[in-house]
């Protein structure tokens, strides 16, 4: 058995699951911050195996989902402009914008939209199209931002003058701080995002234990990872402890990835940012530093945030704040399905509505 197979070994998983069943006292209401954890919990069938008193809520950890309606409106305005090629990751092309149209619809109307696999691909596109302006849609968390920052460093070093970035990046710790300040959320613990933590490590999450007195565990995406994080949380609670622990040591160092953080910090500075369902959170976004202003699509192209136009009937905002499970949205699996999504949480593979649809409907 390889080291990786061990993390889904049935016997090991059963022993941890048994310990959770025997040690859990009362109910446990936890939030898995990361959309990939939401999918992993469903895919592995853990929802049906955990004690009935365990309730999991999805958090704001799907980058496409938390992109604010105004931000979607801004890039939709941009698509179709003469001389502009919008470069984006694939998830975003189906996210409904104002009036329910998405980038895919804009492409059908003649907008030039390129799906890329990395920001470096977008930079290559700019080099190949010197007569156009290539705008890369900077959507994502701390996981994505270092690669965008490295691309901007490369663009500046090479003097590529027709490359721009629309920076809608979001930072996870300020959003968690804002969410945990909501007394209605009533959480017992947090399962922390593995991918983001590979970059920022454990330190930026300390406030969860120090200020909010909640246990939190950074963990991976295999069944045993998730079960171990829940057992740790149960034990912390039983012992009256509240700590942020790193249970994903095969990928996450407590201090994160200092090189990636340094690249990110050299290009971006924290800025206020809009989150779908949450609104403005101070210091939760990333703006380009003065040395990179020439690459800032908003400034270079004179873009302004349009007025937010919420999608009628869509409850993504409540889902992202842990206030509502997707199956309680009136449109879930009726007007809104992965084939015909109404909101972004049904579009992205990391979206909780899509996960509920794909896996819960199969149970
Ligand atoms: Fe929005 Fe669809 Fe999810 Fe409802 S089911 S919250 S409409 S994405």
Describe the structure.
There is one protein chain. With 363 residues, the protein is an alpha/beta fold. The chain has a domain at 64-171 and 256-300: Rossmann fold (3-Layer(aba) Sandwich), CATH 3.40.50.11740. The protein is 37% helix and 16% strand. It contains 16 helices and 11 strands. It has helices at 10-23, 35-43, 46-49, 63-66, 69-78, 103-108, 119-128, 145-158, 172-180, 194-200, 206-210, 223-238, 258-267, 297-300, 316-320, 352-360, and strands at residues 28-32, 54-58, 84-88, 113-115, 133-138, 163-167, 189-192, 216-218, 244-246, 268-275, 279-288. The strands form 3 sheets. A 5-stranded parallel β-sheet has the order 2-1-7-8-9. It has a 4-stranded parallel β-sheet with strand order 4-3-5-6. The two termini are 29 Å apart. Bound molecules: iron/sulfur cluster (SF4). Iron/sulfur cluster is lined by residues 314-316, 319, 326, 329, 331-332, 336, 342-343, 345-346, 353.
Topology record:
Blueprint lengths: L9 H14 L4 E5 L2 H9 L2 H4 L4 E5 L4 H4 L2 H10 L5 E5 L14 H6 L4 E3 L3 H10 L4 E6 L6 H14 L4 E5 L4 H9 L8 E4 L1 H7 L5 H5 L5 E3 L4 H16 L5 E3 L11 H10 E8 L3 E10 L8 H4 L15 H5 L31 H9 L3
Parallel strand pairs: 1-2, 1-7, 3-4, 3-5, 5-6, 7-8, 8-9
Antiparallel strand pairs: 10-11
Helix pairs in contact: 1-12, 2-16, 8-13
Bound molecules: iron/sulfur cluster.
Iron/sulfur cluster binds next to helix 15.
């Amino acid at each position: 058995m390889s080291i990786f197979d061990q993390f889904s070994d049935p016997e090991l998983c059963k022993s941890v699951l048994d310990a959770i069943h025997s040690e859990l006292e009362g109910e446990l209401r936890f939030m898995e911050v990361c959309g990939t954890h939401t999918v992993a919990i469903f895919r592995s069938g853990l929802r049906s195996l955990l004690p009935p008193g365990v309730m999991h809520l999805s958090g704001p950890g799907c980058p496409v989902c938390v992109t604010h309606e105004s931000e979607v409106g801004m890039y939709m305005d941009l698509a179709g402009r003469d001389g502009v090629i919008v470069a984006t990751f694939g998830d975003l092309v189906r996210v409904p914008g104002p009036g329910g149209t998405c980038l895919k619809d804009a492409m059908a109307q003649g907008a030039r939209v390129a799906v890329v696999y990395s920001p470096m691909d977008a930079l290559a596109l700019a080099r190949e199209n010197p007569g156009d302006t290539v705008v890369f849609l900077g959507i994502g968390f701390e996981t994505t931002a270092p690669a965008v920052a490295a691309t901007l460093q490369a663009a500046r070093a090479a003097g590529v003058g027709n490359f721009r970035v629309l920076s809608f990046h979001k930072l996870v710790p300020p959003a968690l701080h804002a969410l945990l300040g909501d007394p209605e959320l009533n959480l017992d613990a947090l399962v922390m995002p593995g991918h983001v933590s590979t970059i920022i490590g454990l330190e930026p999450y300390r406030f969860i234990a120090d200020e909010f007195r909640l246990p939190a565990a950074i963990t991976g995406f295999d069944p045993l990872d998730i079960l171990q994080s829940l057992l740790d949380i149960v034990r912390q609670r039983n012992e009256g402890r509240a700590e942020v622990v790193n249970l994903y040591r095969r990928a996450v160092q407590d201090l994160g990835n200092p090189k990636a953080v340094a690249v990110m910090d050299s290009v971006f500075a924290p800025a206020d940012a809009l989150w779908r369902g949450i609104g403005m959170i101070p210091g939760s976004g990333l703006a380009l530093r003065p040395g990179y202003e020439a690459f800032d699509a908003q400034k270079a192209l004179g873009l302004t945030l349009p007025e937010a136009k919420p999608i009628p009937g869509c409850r993504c905002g409540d889902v992202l704040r842990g206030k509502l499970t997707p199956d309680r949205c009136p449109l879930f699996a009726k007007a809104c399905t992965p084939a015909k999504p109404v909101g972004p949480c049904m579009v992205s593979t990391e979206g909780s509505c899509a996960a509920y649809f794909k896996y819960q409907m199969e149970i």
